Amino acid sequence: MDLSRAAAAALDDADPLAAFRARFTGVDDGLYLDGNSLGRLPVETPAAVARVVKQEWGRGLVGSWSSWVEQARRIGDLLADGVLGARPGEVLVSDTTSVDLYKLLVAGADARPGRDVLVCCADDFPTDRYIVAGVAASRGMTVREVDAHIDTGLDLDVLAAALDERVAVVVLSQVAYRSGALVDIAEVTALARDSGALVLWDLSHAAGAVPAELTTAGADLAVGCTYKYLNGGPGAPAFLYVRSELQEQLRQPIWGWFGARDQFAMGPSYDPADGVDRFGVGTPPVLAMAAVEVGARITAEAGIERLAAKGRALTELVVALADAWLTGYGVTVASPREAPRRGSHVSLAHPQAWQLTQALVDRGVVPDFRTPDRLRLGPAPLYTRFVDVWDAMDRLRTVLAEGAHTSYPTERARVT
């Protein structure tokens, strides 16, 4: 593999997604490799939000609810078709990822009466594990946390050993938040189905960068955020997915009026709506939804397969440069090396990863840090160039060669 900057520039020249970079703000202000935490602002988003503020709210006032009330399903269908590989009427934009996870976990557990075990991954994102623990505690259930390698992810044989007739729901992430390790949705779904359990997927570190193909995989349930690779903005509302065949069997625990069959009848008792609408709760955040719709449309236009292909190529470059330049400084690749087993981010392990992160930020590179000693690099296929990756890795090499990171305090010193 040619590791010259000229070779990286040639990849940019041949990139079929290159034109999308101009549709985001601030792309020339430093090297941003944290798109897996918060995506960039699309150029179209301020005007889209302003239109809702000035025209729909400012002039239409309450009359604009005739269009706002359809937002959750409209954007959901856009995500279903253009990003998630799902069918119309299976995705709803609603609440936060945490709330959606809670709703679907409780609904799934209720749909498996007599089963008293919830399964999750010991190395999964903390909120997911906390919610599983909280639901189990409130229902008198048991949690089985399956071990996963911090770098290479979940072993399906280990998962299979944890599945039996007591398991109601399995909660897993498609892409591990720390290492980027990718799990095969179809394989896990088949394993769980053999034991009679449902699987609830967290797609937060995958949606917009990795194909989910939920229908093809036969997936049961999923949730995910919209502010990472989908570029919906900080705190943007999340999405949930429920397979059509399951929707009438499930009743979620938060009985809000946006999940009711005839919400404006203001009836005396809760009667869940048909289809995916029953998983709504309260009044949606209309302004934030406008921003989500812009990001979702750009992602769908780019095409998830093209985004995934570029994401694999970008992360392959990170791995190759780390091997060539950084090994002698004690840096190791802490993600799966095989591109098909990786999402769109790579973690590098180093005892002073926190200090390296701060040194890079001061030199115009934005990565992020994950415990215990991981420097995480998340190139976003929509706007990150190959030369951006090359330049960021070159600056990291320089920091290490000069020992510049050693002048920074440890994370513990920073906190105290």
From TrEMBL:
InterPro entries: Kynureninase, PyrdxlP-dep_Trfase, PyrdxlP-dep_Trfase_major, PyrdxlP-dep_Trfase_small. It holds the Pfam family KYNU_C. GO terms for biological process: anthranilate metabolic process; L-kynurenine catabolic process; L-tryptophan catabolic process to kynurenine; NAD+ biosynthetic process; quinolinate biosynthetic process. GO terms for molecular function: kynureninase activity; pyridoxal phosphate binding. One of its GO terms (cellular component) is cytoplasm. SUPFAM superfamilies: PLP-dependent transferases. Keywords: Hydrolase, Pyridine nucleotide biosynthesis, Pyridoxal phosphate. Pyridoxal 5'-phosphate binds at T97, S98, F125, P126, T127, D128, D202, H205, Y227, W257, T283. It catalyses: L-kynurenine + H2O = anthranilate + L-alanine + H(+); 3-hydroxy-L-kynurenine + H2O = 3-hydroxyanthranilate + L-alanine + H(+). The keyword Nucleotide-binding does not apply. Pathway: Amino-acid degradation; L-kynurenine degradation; L-alanine and anthranilate from L-kynurenine: step 1/1; Cofactor biosynthesis; NAD(+) biosynthesis; quinolinate from L-kynurenine: step 2/3. Its EC number is 3.7.1.3. Its cofactor is pyridoxal 5'-phosphate. The modification N6-(pyridoxal phosphate)lysine is found at K228. Gene3D superfamilies: Aspartate Aminotransferase, domain 1 (3.90.1150.10), Type I PLP-dependent aspartate aminotransferase-like (Major domain) (3.40.640.10). Catalyzes the cleavage of L-kynurenine (L-Kyn) and L-3-hydroxykynurenine (L-3OHKyn) into anthranilic acid (AA) and 3-hydroxyanthranilic acid (3-OHAA), respectively. Homodimer. Belongs to the kynureninase family. PANTHER family: KYNURENINASE. This is Kynureninase. The lineage of its organism: Bacteria, Bacillati, Actinomycetota, Actinomycetes, Geodermatophilales. The gene is kynU.
